[in-house]
């Protein structure tokens, strides 16, 4: 059995990542692939309970990081690894880069602590392809405010927080040029669909 493929979608809140994630899942299914569409934090019954806590309860930044990785451990064991072993495509709305960008860049948690957690929880697992949707914070916030009536604990953060998250994603893109593709998310959804089609056809 050939191992499946693993794609993660990343970006600051409001960049348009979930819109493109949904499109890519439909597109890949249309191409005849068996696709597991999933997300983080979440993706399992326990992970979705942890997500509800993470998005609503105030907590210490290290507690936040540990819960993100706890949900991820469950997700890898219950969903991601079995799907890849079956030969399925796993298309995940956020994965480990979000922990570096949000808990590391956004909240200021020591990058080395995150690397230790990532080594523990992921081992050698990495997405085959990571798409980072990049847009100026002002544009992403405009989209977010137009779309979201009740912002969660992350969405309520100030612009400076998202500037740090964005800068971390840009650093991750620069440091991982093979795995990561940076996408200009200010373009129209249709234009971005075409870019994704090309990337998926050639990766
Ligand atoms: N390329 C785009 N151009 C303009 N608006 C967009 C684009 N992509 C998504 N949107 C809109 O912006 C809002 C946030 O999109 P969403 O995909 O939920 O963002 P994210 O998952 O990155 O937080 C939604 O109302 C969505 O319809
Ligand atoms: C996976 C992950 C998400 N997050 C945050 C980013 C998002 O603000 C929030 C929820 O992610 P997401 O599902 O992308 O939210 P939405 O669909 O509302 O755009 O969790 C982290 O801070 N660290 C992580 O490791």
UniProtKB/TrEMBL annotation:
<keyword id="KW-0067">ATP-binding</keyword>
<dbReference type="GO" id="GO:0005829">
    <property type="term" value="C:cytosol"/>
</dbReference>
<dbReference type="InterPro" id="IPR039430">
    <property type="entry name" value="Thymidylate_kin-like_dom"/>
</dbReference>
<keyword id="KW-0547">Nucleotide-binding</keyword>
<protein>
    <recommendedName>
        <fullName>Thymidylate kinase</fullName>
        <ecNumber>2.7.4.9</ecNumber>
    </recommendedName>
</protein>
<dbReference type="GO" id="GO:0005524">
    <property type="term" value="F:ATP binding"/>
</dbReference>
<dbReference type="Pfam" id="PF02223">
    <property type="entry name" value="Thymidylate_kin"/>
</dbReference>
<feature type="domain" description="Thymidylate kinase-like">
    <location>
        <begin position="9"/>
        <end position="191"/>
    </location>
</feature>
<keyword id="KW-0418">Kinase</keyword>
<dbReference type="GO" id="GO:0006235">
    <property type="term" value="P:dTTP biosynthetic process"/>
</dbReference>
<dbReference type="InterPro" id="IPR027417">
    <property type="entry name" value="P-loop_NTPase"/>
</dbReference>
<feature type="binding site">
    <location>
        <begin position="11"/>
        <end position="18"/>
    </location>
    <ligand>
        <name>ATP</name>
    </ligand>
</feature>
<comment type="function">
    <text>Phosphorylation of dTMP to form dTDP in both de novo and salvage pathways of dTTP synthesis.</text>
</comment>
<comment type="similarity">
    <text>Belongs to the thymidylate kinase family.</text>
</comment>
<keyword id="KW-0808">Transferase</keyword>
<dbReference type="InterPro" id="IPR018094">
    <property type="entry name" value="Thymidylate_kinase"/>
</dbReference>
<keyword id="KW-0545">Nucleotide biosynthesis</keyword>
<dbReference type="GO" id="GO:0004798">
    <property type="term" value="F:dTMP kinase activity"/>
</dbReference>
<dbReference type="GO" id="GO:0006227">
    <property type="term" value="P:dUDP biosynthetic process"/>
</dbReference>
<dbReference type="GO" id="GO:0006233">
    <property type="term" value="P:dTDP biosynthetic process"/>
</dbReference>
């Amino acid at each position: 059995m050939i191992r499946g493929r693993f794609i993660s979608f990343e970006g600051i809140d409001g960049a348009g990542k979930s819109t493109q994630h949904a499109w890519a899942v439909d597109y890949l299914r249309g191409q005849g692939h068996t696709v597991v569409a999933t997300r983080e934090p979440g993706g399992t019954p326990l992970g979705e309970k942890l997500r509800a806590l993470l998005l609503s309860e105030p907590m210490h930044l290290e507690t936040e990081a540990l819960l993100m990785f706890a949900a991820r451990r469950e997700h890898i064991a219950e969903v991601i690894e079995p799907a890849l072993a079956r030969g399925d495509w796993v298309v995940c709305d956020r994965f480990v880069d979000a922990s570096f960008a949000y808990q590391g860049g956004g909240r200021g948690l020591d990058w080395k602590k995150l690397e230790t957690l990532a080594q523990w929880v992921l081992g050698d697992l990495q997405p085959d392809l990571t798409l980072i949707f990049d847009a100026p914070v002002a544009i992403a916030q405009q989209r977010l405010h137009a779309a979201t009536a009740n912002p969660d604990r992350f969405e309520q953060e100030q612009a400076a927080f998202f500037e740090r998250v964005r800068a971390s994603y840009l650093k991750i893109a620069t440091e991982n040029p093979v795995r990561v593709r940076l996408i200009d998310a200010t373009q129209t959804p249709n234009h971005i669909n075409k870019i994704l089609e090309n990337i998926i056809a050639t990766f």
